[in-house]
């Protein structure tokens, strides 16, 4: 099975000539979706970003549609190596395709959020911030955790009170782990299921606008 990312499947918000001078925001979709899923959020995101929506490399078992970053069937879903492998593929993509873009931010939903956070843990110097929508931090130690805790990049975490997809122990672990490693902000949305609401998108927009301001100030 070819588990590398398909560069031809990436959806871009800007033409090639308009990307290099813009900070890059990489979108990572959830289980059973594809690159078109989160690309629909582009109108809600600051236009100053060059947005790239990636397609996960794995095909879920029939009859599930779309693609996945790592398997969730059986005991395999409890193995953090799968999440780490997916995060390494994202790092490889940024090395091969996005070398002209600095800084880089990550925005993921569910599986994509878990992979985003894992990529940031593997290479804390690579990413300026992350947006975690209905995702979680993968349990277990990663070599870059100490460096991440020292850098403390901004992370937005949004989730719903009625999300019955992410297990409670992963929410609890993320709640305990994130404040010690990142500059955490976000909200728990009353009544929201495993999805994204307009209020959450408005909050994400505020977060991303602040990131642009900070990046401009850093010059």
Automatic annotation (TrEMBL):
It comes from the Bacteria. Keywords: Hydrolase. Residues 16-210 form the Phospholipase/carboxylesterase/thioesterase domain. GO terms for molecular function: hydrolase activity. InterPro entries: AB_hydrolase_fold, LYPA1-2/EST-like, PLipase/COase/thioEstase. PANTHER family: LYSOPHOSPHOLIPASE-LIKE PROTEIN 1 (PTHR10655:SF17), LYSOPHOSPHOLIPASE-RELATED (PTHR10655). Belongs to the AB hydrolase superfamily. AB hydrolase 2 family. This is Alpha/beta fold hydrolase.
């Amino acid at each position: 099975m070819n588990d590398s990312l398909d560069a031809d499947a990436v959806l871009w918000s800007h033409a090639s000539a308009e990307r290099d001078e813009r900070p890059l925001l990489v979108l990572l979709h959830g289980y059973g979706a594809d690159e078109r899923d989160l690309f629909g959020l582009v109108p809600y995101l600051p236009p100053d970003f060059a947005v790239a929506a990636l397609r996960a490399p794995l095909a879920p078992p029939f009859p599930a549609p779309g693609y996945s970053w790592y398997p969730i069937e059986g005991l395999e879903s409890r193995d953090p190596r799968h999440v780490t492998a997916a995060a390494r593929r994202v790092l490889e993509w940024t090395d091969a395709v996005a070398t002209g873009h600095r800084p880089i931010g990550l925005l993921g939903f569910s599986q994509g959020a878990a992979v985003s956070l894992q990529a940031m843990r593997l290479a804390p110097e690579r990413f300026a911030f992350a947006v975690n929508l209905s995702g979680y931090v993968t349990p277990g130690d990663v070599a870059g955790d100490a460096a991440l805790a020292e850098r403390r990049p901004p992370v937005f975490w949004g989730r719903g009170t009625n999300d019955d997809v992410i297990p409670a122990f992963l929410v609890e672990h993320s709640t305990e782990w994130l404040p010690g490693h990142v500059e955490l902000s976000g909200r728990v949305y009353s009544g929201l299921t495993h999805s994204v609401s307009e209020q959450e998108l408005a909050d994400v927009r505020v977060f991303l606008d602040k990131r642009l301001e900070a990046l401009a100030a850093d010059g």
